[in-house]
Amino acid sequence: MALVDPQAVLDGRTPGRPPVALIAGVLVSSLCIVLALALDALSGGAGFWVGAILAILPIPMLVALVLAVDRMEPEPPRVLVFSFLWGAGVAVLVALVLNTLGLLYVTVPIFGETKGHFVSATFGAPVIEESLKGAVLFGLLWWRRNEIDGFADGVVYACMVGLGFAMMENITYYMRAFEEGGAQQLQAVFILRGLVAPFSHPLFTSMTGLGVAYAATHRRGGPGQLLAPLAGLLGAMLLHGLWNGSTAIGGGAGLIVVYLADFVLLCALITIILVERRGTVRRIERYLPMYAGTGLVTPQDVAMLRSLASRRAARRWARSVGGKPAARAMEDYQLAATELSLLHKRVERDNAEPHWFAARRDALLNLMALARQAFLRVPPRPASVPPPWAPQGPSGFLHPPHH
């Protein structure tokens, strides 16, 4: 498999160095993060370090939870990293500037100090912040729409942007709580923002992700191409505004209401993702048997691809047979087969140009063939353990029987 870059095939991009635009985006986002942190550090003193530690500490766990919903067809790591950095850098810094200008020159002069802050937090900030976070998703829809294969993809990208934004915003909240109320107030804010509802920003932006995912997986030129992303963005703004205005409008009761709303929304997103995953399994069962004539799949191999548990068992078997390279080859095979079934989903929805479909299909089949050859090049050993999903055969990963 040395002549093929499996990740490039799976990502649907030309092999080679990362795109210049992606490198520039990561660089700009990183510089914005440094600048935002510097502003907090200059104004926060010792509270800055307390806030930074508390804000950053749970991020690996939260990112892992987000990625757990995308195991059947993982997104390109470089795009996920860029999405997180954009949320933590560009979105945060530009939102800080625009929100501050809005307070100084619009809401406070018109409504007064107290009401101006309420109007800015409830109506201005959600529009600004969700637009900036959603810019990544709209960019993916415009430049890399084929990377989004369903609602789960849109939610994952949205959550990565939201987690980056929330991490930087939490630094400021924790820092202020520590400086104004000491450890007791810091503890209360951390419980509310870090433990009870750490996914608030990701949940808001997930509405935009759902709209963008709908547009990306349906026919170009259809009515949903513009309406769905805009409706998703509007939903994100409304949820964000409800969250920001909850305590001022309803006090503690309002806060309870929005926490419950977030919980219901989280359950709804999980349900959508699980339903979509079952749809992916049905497409695997429907379309992969069409390629049985290539020798790349058998009914047993299709059954192995149906669940995450059987896929893990297959990778463990591959590792026992040929070590890490074989396990990696098995993973490439599984991901390519899944991408192939999702490619047919685009055909179902009249969202795939014939020439692109043919080239993409052939590239995925070639990757599946190369992954399979990694096993067939190994001489058969009578004492070797047969694949757990096909103990009696047939399987594309078994040597044909000798006659």
Automatic annotation (TrEMBL):
Keywords: Hydrolase, Membrane, Metalloprotease, Protease, Transmembrane, Transmembrane helix. The keyword Amino-acid biosynthesis does not apply. Residues 382-403 are annotated as: Disordered. GO terms for molecular function: metallopeptidase activity. It comes from the Bacteria. It comes from Actinomadura parmotrematis. PANTHER family: PROTEASE PRSW. Residues 382-391 have a biased composition (Pro residues). This is PrsW family intramembrane metalloprotease. The chain crosses the membrane at residues 20-42, 48-69, 81-106, 155-175, 195-214, 226-243, 249-275.
